[in-house]
Amino acid sequence: MPEIFPDSQKYPTTPDGRYFVVKGRLWRTTNPHLTATEREKLTHQLMMARRDVATQKKKQDARAEKWAHAEVNRLKIALGERGPVWWTDGDLTDYTRHKAKTTPYAEWYASLGMPIETDE
């Protein structure tokens, strides 16, 4: 699997490439089956939608902010970071947002020697 996050020391990627870890929690990686062009286009659109969320929050336009959040969600699904899992081995389990230490990745995560994360 290609390395999704270039700073693998800070955000290690699970051996199967499905997740990266931030503050001890698993987050689904972008679908590696997307072409570079598709990924770049969707990522650009996602960044624009996130900026729109912030803009609408500042304007206190709840309706427009809700639409912007929906657009962020749509794009994250298109990238494979939310919604149905992108892997095809039959395992439909999604550990997104789970603490790595409470998942089948616990032994791998412990082997990294990462600092112990506390509940914040």
What does this structure look like?
With 120 residues, the protein is mainly alpha-helical. The chain has two domains: 1-29 and 92-120, no CATH class; 33-80. It has helices at residues 36-59, 62-79, 106-111, and strands at 19-22, 25-28. It has a two-stranded antiparallel sheet with strand order 1-2. Strand 1 and strand 2 (25-28) form a beta hairpin. Helix 1 (36-59) packs antiparallel against helix 2 (62-79). It is globular and about 45 Å long. The model is unreliable at 1-7 (pLDDT under 50).
The total beta strand count reads 2
Strand content: 5-15%
The profile of the biggest β sheet is:
2 strands, antiparallel
**H/E order of the elements?**
EEHHH
Lateral strand order in the biggest sheet: 1-2
Report the average pLDDT across residues.
Answer: 90
- Overall shape: globular
Query: What helical percentage do the residues reach?
Result: 40-55%
- Helix count equals 3
Rounded to the nearest angstrom, the distance between the terminal CA atoms is: 32 Å
Assembly state here?
Answer: single chain
Secondary-structure content class: mainly alpha
Low-confidence stretches: 1-7
Radius of gyration: 16 Å
Q: How many structural domains can be distinguished in the coordinates?
A: 2
How is this fold's topology laid out?
Elements: E1 19-22, E2 25-28, H1 36-59, H2 62-79, H3 106-111
Antiparallel strand pairs: 1-2
